[in-house]
Design brief:
Structural class: alpha+beta
Number of domains: 2
Largest sheet: 5 strands, antiparallel
Order of helices and strands: EEEEEEEEEEEHEEEEHEHEE
CATH architecture of the largest domain: 2-Layer Sandwich
Helix content: 10-25%
Distance between the termini: 17 Å
Strand order of the largest sheet: 3-4-6-1-8
Shape: elongated
Length: 231
């Protein structure tokens, strides 16, 4: 994780802290800045294995430094941000604290052979196509949703959104059918508290040209979104 700060004319010294089987520290461990200069500090762990989540707070002297941003490093995601939930935490430049910085590896989603998760501004998205026969779930889609429900339940602090899309603009009957499809999806997921909303988007967000009769059926899809938290 990288913290960006404005510095004054000061020398900064960071001392590594020992962990069980490893250590955590800030790199570079020593840096001299000039007034108004931006510096980037990386929080790093070394000699550690089987780390699947982390959380820490960091404090600084607010009369000398001002924090301006926090970004995710590559330790957990290995360069693939679809496998993690990053929480940048809260910056308080009056108190001189960066609190609730956290990252969690959602390996169950990425490791599942039947899912092809992607990431967008909402979070980690699992997309199912051909999920319904009429308003009922297809057998394979129901099985996958039950598995997704188990994953969501084990990461319950991350909200889940259900989003339904149509291939073409829906009329009243199709809108009513989408409502029933949403209910079926909730039932398969387990309808637990981690599901925060069910949205029906109609044909407003196509992934392929809706005027293309050969491919527009791909616009009909069911999305299960593991929402990235920012609080």
């Amino acid at each position: 994780m990288a913290n960006k700060m404005f510095g004054g004319a000061v020398s900064l010294l960071a001392v590594p802290v020992a962990l069980l089987g490893g250590s955590i520290g800030i790199q570079p461990s020593s840096v001299t800045t000039m007034p108004g200069q931006t510096i980037t500090l990386a929080v790093q762990v070394t000699n550690i294995t089987d780390l699947y989540a982390w959380q820490f707070d960091l404090s600084f002297d607010p009369t000398i430094l001002t924090a301006i941003g926090i970004t995710e490093g590559g330790f957990l995601d290995g360069g693939d941000s679809t496998t993690t939930f990053f929480i940048p935490g809260t910056i308080d430049n009056n108190a001189g604290t960066l609190t609730a910085n956290a990252d969690a590896l959602l390996s169950a989603v990425s490791a599942h052979g039947g899912w092809d998760p992607s990431r967008d501004e909402r979070g980690v998205v699992v997309t199912l196509r051909a999920a319904f026969t009429g308003t009922a779930l297809a057998a394979d889609a129901e099985r996958q949703l039950r598995e997704l429900g188990r994953v969501a339940a084990s990461h319950a602090r991350f909200p889940v959104q259900v989003v339904l899309h149509d291939a073409t603009p829906p009329g009243p009957a199709e809108q009513a059918a989408d409502t029933e499809r949403g209910k079926a999806t909730l039932a398969a997921l387990g309808a637990q508290s981690f599901v925060t909303s069910v949205e029906t988007m109609g044909a407003s967000l196509p992934t392929t040209d809706p005027a293309d009769p050969q491919n527009r059926a791909r616009n009909a899809r069911l999305e299960v979104v593991f929402v990235s938290r920012t609080d």
